[in-house]
Structure formats: structure tokens, C-alpha cells
Amino acid sequence: MKFQTIQKCLGGTLMLTVLVAASAALKPSIAGAFSPNMAQELNLTPAQQTELDAIRENTRTQAEAILTEEQLATLAGTTGRDRKQAMGNLDLSEAQRTQLQAIREESKTAASQVLTEEQQAQLQTTNRRKNRREDLAEELNLTPEQQTELQSIRENARTRAEAVLTDEQLATLEGRTGRERMQAMRSLDLSEEQLTQLQEIRDDSRAAADNVLTDEQKAQLQEMRSERGNRHRGNQ
Q: Do 182 and 100 belong to one domain?
């Protein structure tokens, strides 16, 4: 019974997490580099971070050398997601696309040589999760403003939830993200008071997220929740 209660309390937080598209690139590519959160999650050493930063800068320099002055002007002043979107909107020739793909593959190979096998496996798992989030954000047609608001709601919910937990419980969650963190949360021996507080946080975050979404998006999300619930019951 307690497991089901925990699952219910955390369900809204999980869906909210899925709603939020990743705000930074999670793999070395032309568009970005490792975010601070990803660097921490992979437990990168300072030496690894320095090497990856150098790979990123070299990749960017090579990519920009392929672009025309007009294309570079389009990218001027853009960073992060904005730069990635601007890159996607460029009218690239086939030759440019081929060259950029080659640069991307070279940077991935160089980065993989910096990471340990464990870090590479963890990165692949995170990238799959990121792609699912981005697909959902695209399916719901979330605007950048909505994504920013949802990210803020998620971070606030996480901060409030962590304030409810004891130091020992927080230690159990340390270093865990995504599904692994959810599984660790479910294994916690939570008191009835903690369960009640987490339920309130869940309800607050879901209400706040609903206020960000349009009626059409909420209908889509409700359908997804129902499908997810049906799949879960079918697996039991």
C-alpha cells in the first residue's frame, strides 16, 4: 500500500520531468557541450572537462569555417538552445551538411576517448531520456516560454520535496537522476507525514503546470497519462 502511495505522490513529478525538454545539449556536438548538471552527473574530472571543452571549441571553429558570412551572421549572439535552433534553420548546401556531419562524428569519437566506459553508458542512457523529452515537448508543441516555466516549476517541486526528506534519505538519492532517482525515491522508508507533504507538492506542481498549458495541450497530456497508466496496469 505504501509503495502505491509513494508512486501516486511522485507520478506528477515524473510527468512534469518528462514535460520539460532538456535545456542543454547532453552530448558533444556542433550545437553544444556538456551542461554543468551533466558534468556533475557523469562525475567528470577537471582534466576530462578541460579536454571536452577543447574538443567543443575545436568543433565549433571547424563548423564555423564551413559557413558563409551570411550564415555566421544568423548565428551571431546566439548560445545554447537558441544557437541550436538557429543552426537548424540555416539553408545549408549538401556539401556543408556532409562536412558538418563529418565534424560531428569526429567530435563524438574524440569525446568518447575522454570518457570511461561507465560514463559512455550513462551518457547513452541520458541521451535516450533527453530524446524522449524533446519528442514529447515537440508533440505538445511547447513554446520556449512554456518550457522555461515548466523547468522552473520542476526545480521548485524538487527543492520542496528534498526539504521534506532527512539527510539519510537525501544521501540515498545523491548522484541519481531520472528513472534511477524515481526508483530510489520509491525505496525510501517515508513517514505518513512525509507522504502527505509529498502529495501536496505533487498537487501544487501539477496545478502550476496545468496553468502553463493550453486546453489542447492539457487534453493531450491527460491522454498520455491515461495511456501510461494503462501500460503500467498491463505490466502488473
A: no
Length in residues, the chain: 236
Up-side HSE of residue 12: CA atoms within 13 Å toward CB? 22
Cα separation, 100 vs 86, whole angstroms: 15
- Contact indicator for 21, 133 with CB cutoff of 8 Å: yes
Q: What are the cell numbers at 113? A: 576517448
Q: Are residues 137 and 149 located together in one domain of the fold? A: no
d(CA 162, CA 156): 10
Evaluate whether 30 touches 86 at the Cβ level (below 8 Å).
Answer: no
* Alpha-carbon 5 to chain mean position: 26
Q: Domain residues for 94?
A: 24-141
Angle at 23 between CA 22 and CA 28, to 5 degrees: 85
Residue in 123, 92, 130, 86 with CA at minimum distance from that of residue 108: 123
Same domain for 32 and 17: no
Is 124 in the same domain as 45? Answer: yes
Question: Tell me: the pLDDT tens digits for 103-114?
Answer: 989 988 898 899
pLDDT tens, residue by residue, 67-81 = 999 989 988 887 766
pTM: 0.48
DSSP code at position 187: T
57 and 108 inside one domain: yes
